[in-house]
């Protein structure tokens, strides 16, 4: 298991928590919690080691477009970058996020 930590400067605080996905083969779970301030912390626990740069690329693309402010926990079980982006987009739907 590998633990990854990322931090992003963000500008759009969320008002409610969200939970998306399940931990299972080729999938992941995302837990989002509101926080004060303008910093989003992302903690990832993954069984797929050696993909830190891929995670950083996907997350940077997401937070550049959708700068939500939250504490985010991800439990990954081998999700592809496309699945990661899909799940993060589903978080926006649950949060009723508007650009």
From TrEMBL:
PTM notes: Covalently binds the prosthetic group of malonate decarboxylase.
Alphabetized InterPro entries for the sequence: Mal_deCO2ase/Cit_lyase_ACP, Malonate_deCO2ase_dsu
GO cellular component, one term: cytoplasm
Positions bearing O-(phosphoribosyl dephospho-coenzyme A)serine: 25
Subcellular location: Cytoplasm
Keywords for this protein: Cytoplasm, Phosphoprotein
Regions crossing the membrane: none
NCBIfam families (UniProt xref): malonate_delta, PRK01220.1
HAMAP family cross-referenced by the UniProt entry: Malonate_deCO2ase_dsu (MF_00710)
Protein known as: Malonate decarboxylase acyl carrier protein
């Amino acid at each position: 298991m590998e633990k990854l930590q990322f931090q992003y400067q963000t500008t759009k605080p969320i008002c409610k928590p969200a939970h998306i996905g399940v931990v299972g083969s080729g999938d992941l779970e995302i837990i989002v919690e509101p926080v004060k301030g303008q910093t989003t912390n992302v903690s990832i626990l993954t069984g797929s080691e050696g993909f830190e740069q891929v995670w950083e690329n996907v997350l940077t693309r997401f937070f550049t477009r959708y700068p939500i402010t939250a504490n985010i926990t991800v439990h990954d079980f081998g999700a592809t970058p496309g699945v990661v982006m899909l799940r993060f987009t589903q978080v926006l739907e649950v949060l009723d996020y508007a650009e």
